[in-house]
Amino acid sequence: GEDVEQSLFLSVREGDSSVINCTYTDSSSTYLYWYKQEPGAGLQLLTYIFSNMDMKQDQRLTVLLNKKDKHLSLRIADTQTGDSAIYFCAEFCSNDYKLSFGAGTTVTVRA
Amino acid sequence: DVKVTQSSRYLVKRTGEKVFLECVQDMDHENMFWYRQDPGLGLRLIYFSYDVKMKEKGDIPEGYSVSREKKERFSLILESASTNQTSMYLCASSLTGQESLEQYFGPGTRLTVT
Prior knowledge:
The complex is a heterodimer of chains A (111) and B (114). Chain A is an all-beta fold. In chain B, the strands form 2 sheets. In chain B, strands 2, 4, 5, 6, 9, 10 and 11 form a 7-stranded mixed β-sheet that branches. Classes of the chains: A mainly beta (111), B mainly beta (114). The interface between A and B is medium-sized, with 21 and 21 residues.
């Protein structure tokens, strides 16, 4: 695994869409993940995408993968106060069989 | 439902003390991991284990050791705690195999070394 980068903070109004962006560097990544960490809790897998896919939708969540640019995004539609959390992007590196995490994006939902 | 438990949610230790952090998973997972989480740095892998009595260094193993005597239990040991080891420690487990790369996390142990 190599560097995974994401912005540290995002503030969004309740009801709007949130978009969290992530870039990675390992071209051998097979899976890319989004984890959510609520205050005082461990990480919980939100969704993942296989590297041969461009998009995955799961209810309010849409994951977009641009493999050429090594760019991953997570869109949360109709953001709610319960979506306030830290969101981590992670890549699975097939050459060393480990997960590499980004620093996490703290999403704050304001009324 | 997968459950990963960690022995303590909060721990305060003095510099130089030996510290044990315990992690137990109840889903017969082969793989177990220890991470530390620091603001702005995300999760960094300390050690991991693919099987009983087996361990591999992660990205930041210095100052830590681990023990895996039983499949369900993975212990992180700080031989002589230092203030720069103040952090949130997260344990995770996963199955082996392409179909199950998801890691399941415990709630974390917030360690303060004074």
